[in-house]
From TrEMBL:
<feature type="domain" description="Methyltransferase type 11">
    <location>
        <begin position="47"/>
        <end position="139"/>
    </location>
</feature>
<dbReference type="GO" id="GO:0008757">
    <property type="term" value="F:S-adenosylmethionine-dependent methyltransferase activity"/>
</dbReference>
<keyword id="KW-0489">Methyltransferase</keyword>
<dbReference type="Pfam" id="PF08241">
    <property type="entry name" value="Methyltransf_11"/>
</dbReference>
<protein>
    <submittedName>
        <fullName>Putative methyltransferase</fullName>
    </submittedName>
</protein>
<dbReference type="InterPro" id="IPR029063">
    <property type="entry name" value="SAM-dependent_MTases_sf"/>
</dbReference>
<dbReference type="GO" id="GO:0032259">
    <property type="term" value="P:methylation"/>
</dbReference>
<dbReference type="InterPro" id="IPR013216">
    <property type="entry name" value="Methyltransf_11"/>
</dbReference>
<keyword id="KW-0808">Transferase</keyword>
Amino acid sequence: MDFRMNSPAGKAILARARNGDYAHPGEEEAIAAAVDGLPRERIHRLLDVGCGRGGTADWFWRHGWGEVTGVDIDAASIEYARMRYPGVRFLQQDVCRMERPQFQGFDLVYLFTALYAIPDQTEALRRMRMAARPGGILLLVDYTRPAAQPPPPELGPEIGNPIEFETVGDTLAATGWKLQTREDWTPRFAVWYENLLERFARERDWIVDTHGPDWYGYVTGWYEALWKALGARRLGGTLVRATTREPARFAAEPFLPLIHGGEGAEP
């Protein structure tokens, strides 16, 4: 059996527990917090990278942010999203193979817990930079790990390659982005995953009846290990905001309020 949260069964279980097609912790609360302070008047075209089943892309469309394009490498997720959310344009696409002119001129490129799962993150960030307009914005919510430390081994390959919080600015600079702010969202992630574990417990009968007891054991065991790793700070969460590096009318203007405590301050 294919025990992966990125499998169709895993995504369906998460959607049930989260009461929506979201693949990131915090669901709509996380989206609203991530976009707080963005210059909405300058954002009209949005690119959702790793859109999954389309819930986040639909949130932006429903809240009037503009034209949203969602891309994901998984064909089943894209097929589902197209049927479920007709207001959004969804494309099956490997982010590391995006090309102009199909992908260019986006005002906002965003990822919610997606970069960690992309094997070639440098190429992905470079391609996203190509897709952004001059002065465009990158919004990134993802897992982090301490510098020079591997991810918690008990989470296996499914945790992918979380970004290094301390060096994310260098990573962005090497791919054409300029770091604006980074926030430590580890405490938020821990609370959101504790809540998710409680939701799994409430949905136990549905998960067992629909997917079998082994799936219930897998999701509860994996996410409990994730929650414990967050509590021990062997794994973290972050919100990163960046802009394109080349000069543009808005590129040098800060678009966010100053974060008290400086970079890495806990929310």
